[in-house]
Design brief:
Length: 386
Amino acid sequence: MQKAVIIIPTYNESGNIGPLIDKLGELFNKIPASWKMNILVVDDSSPDGTADVVKEKMMKYKNLFLLLNKEKVGLGGAYIRGMSWAVKEINPDLMIEMDADFQHDLNLIPKFLEEIEAGADLVIAARYIKGGSIPKYWGLFRKTLSMGGNLFTRIVMMDGSIHDWTTGFRAVKPWVFLKVKDKITELKTYSFQISFLYFARKEGAKIVEIPLNFGERKWGESKLPALEGTIKTFWFVVKTRALDFLRSRFFKFGIVGFIGYIINALGLEFFYRFFKIPAGVAASLGAELAIISNFSLDNLWTFSDKKIEGIGNLLVKFLQFNLTSVGAIIIQGLVVGIGTRILGDELRQIMLVIAIGFFVLPFNYTVYNLFIWKTWKFPFSTSPSK
């Protein structure tokens, strides 16, 4: 028998939590006998007596647990504490995130279990896929914030496989939580949900989406101002992806390429001024000096995890590097040569920048990944390496 626990964070949900627990109790009777279902309410010491309602229900339901936070820790903080407690005290095979306000369709819980049994590590109830929806009563402003925020996140994260990054109705295997819990820093906005997914993807979790028709809140009011949450979410996404870029292989490659450009530019001037070589040929000679620099720095830094070692291997790979760079030399020579013939030699450095920035850099990055260090991953992707 497998064990699952539904974790429900609450703050001033006394009107919702009692009926929700009863509804879940009815649903559990329809769950396959292979699953033992539990409920854990994580309450931020609600002043409206939410915890008292739960304690009363615990007299009836032996699979109901209550975890009280002495202070308000926010949505993410409640989930982190609740999941940590559940892993230690219940040792579940599955944990389900769920709100207390009836906006999440309880009838999707059996579908969560099916997807987990089929091999998923994290199941998302998504509003923005076929079969899913958001409430019709939402105003244009709120719809725009929610839909626009998710679209923005999908674009910036460069991951179109996830359509609803902020949904709070999910099922997750404990191993995923244990891998990501110490990496999540934003706990009080929708950014928690995005951060959880972001790190889960990096850890290689298999993520599946099922459609969710987001319902209306039964009692009480939303705890987080939509605009404030959206602004913080936008900032989190931008900040996270900016840091990804600065840590990425592509950024290192760009730095090495810039050093190579400086060497290339100096070489172009050296051969052009002192040896009176035509600009196109001088650019090609400068490119060869840059290739020597790029190979050395890329091997030591950009591709340090796949560093080539040994004199023999280095010589062989350097020859391969030169051969694969022939295309870059030809491209650069043609762009600079044609450009200076049309516009004049005084624009040779501008033509060099155009050649490297728009043609050589993307060409080299692709070729080096595929043939020299033999690794390929779309730059800054949130997906794990294949």
